[in-house]
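Lecture notes, part 5. Sequence design as translation. It can be helpful to think of inverse folding as translation between two languages: the language of shapes and the language of residues. The source text, in structure tokens, appears below.
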């Protein structure tokens, strides 16, 4: 017991945030319960983002009742690829990604062939709440399938890599690139076997990776290095994440974004209870950074100053960046 306590005190000294501190000092303190539906329901998040002029994957249609499942043919239309997901799902569960059609059926991104009837049955399961937070009745949304930018081709297995940025009161404090693997079934979900790679806030350069709680430098499927990769549009991603504070009103969130080959940066969803594995990927504790941001906010409050998105991003890039940003 003493050894565990000693180890935990050492982690605390490095600013490692545990789940109890996250919940008590950040989630409960900064996130009003009344605002949770904005981030827990992907349809509401998407509608708010569109109204704010923020780019998201195009929504083809929503199915809310068993009767509306009959509309699926019309919603899909002649499209060969699309995504079906539960509006209130979590952890990537319940998502079907269709990549193509085959002999009157559909081929998923993993190569599995499924029928239209199987998709209808899956949507029915979504409506019952099988994949929703708390098991509540849900809605199914059908949307644009993101095509990952070519930058990820050598360091990802199938699926769509995404970028998670944790934001405190509009200040991005830590970033991670999540890379699908064969083990994760092409999903960018760390608990299912995806890779988490730290990202330098100042430059968008990838750092080291973590896979199944082990530190790695190469992707297990492609064997290519996951560190030292320059993510395009990095300042754009940072500003998108920062602006989500005004979008949803929640003070402590995880912003999940993707880089589409044609459409550029898109927001996928927001999370009011972002996980803590991002600290392993960055070899850095969240607490030191969140305390620095809270001190900054208090200082500005005393002066009657509220920073813009641009100013917030510049502050964290200068404060937390591993590598000085290159000018020009």
């Amino acid at each position: 017991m003493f050894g565990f306590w000693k180890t935990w005190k050492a982690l605390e000294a490095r600013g490692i945030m545990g789940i109890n501190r996250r919940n008590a000092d950040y989630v409960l303190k900064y996130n009003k319960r009344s605002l949770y539906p904005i981030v827990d329901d992907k349809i509401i998040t998407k509608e708010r983002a569109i109204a704010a002029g923020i780019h998201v994957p195009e929504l083809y249609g929503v199915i809310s009742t068993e009767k509306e499942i009959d509309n699926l043919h019309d919603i899909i239309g002649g499209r060969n690829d699309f995504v079906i997901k539960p509006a209130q799902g979590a952890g990537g569960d319940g998502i079907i990604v269709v990549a193509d059609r085959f002999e009157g059926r559909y081929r998923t991104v993993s190569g599995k062939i499924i029928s239209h009837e199987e998709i209808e049955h899956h949507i029915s399961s979504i409506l019952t709440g099988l994949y929703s937070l708390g098991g509540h009745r849900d809605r199914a949304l059908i949307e644009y399938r993101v095509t990952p930018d070519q930058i990820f081709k050598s360091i990802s297995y199938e699926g769509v890599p995404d970028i998670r940025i944790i934001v405190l009161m509009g200040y991005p404090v830590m970033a991670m690139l999540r890379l699908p693997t064969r083990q994760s079934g092409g999903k960018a979900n760390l608990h299912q076997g995806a890779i988490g790679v730290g990202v330098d806030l100042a430059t968008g350069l990838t750092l080291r990776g973590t896979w199944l709680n082990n530190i790695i430098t190469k992707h297990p499927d492609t064997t290519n290095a996951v560190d030292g990769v320059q993510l395009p549009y990095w300042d754009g991603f940072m500003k998108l994440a920062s602006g989500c504070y005004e979008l949803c009103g929640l003070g402590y969130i995880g912003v999940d974004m993707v880089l589409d080959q044609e459409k550029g940066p898109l927001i996928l969803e927001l999370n009011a209870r972002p996980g803590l594995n991002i600290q392993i990927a960055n070899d850095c504790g969240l607490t030191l950074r969140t305390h620095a941001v809270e001190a900054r906010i208090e200082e500005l409050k005393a002066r009657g100053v509220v920073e813009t998105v641009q100013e917030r991003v510049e502050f964290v890039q200068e404060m937390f960046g591993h590598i000085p940003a290159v000018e020009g």
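The translated text above is only one of many valid answers, since several sequences can fold into similar shapes. The two ends are 54 Å apart (CA to CA).
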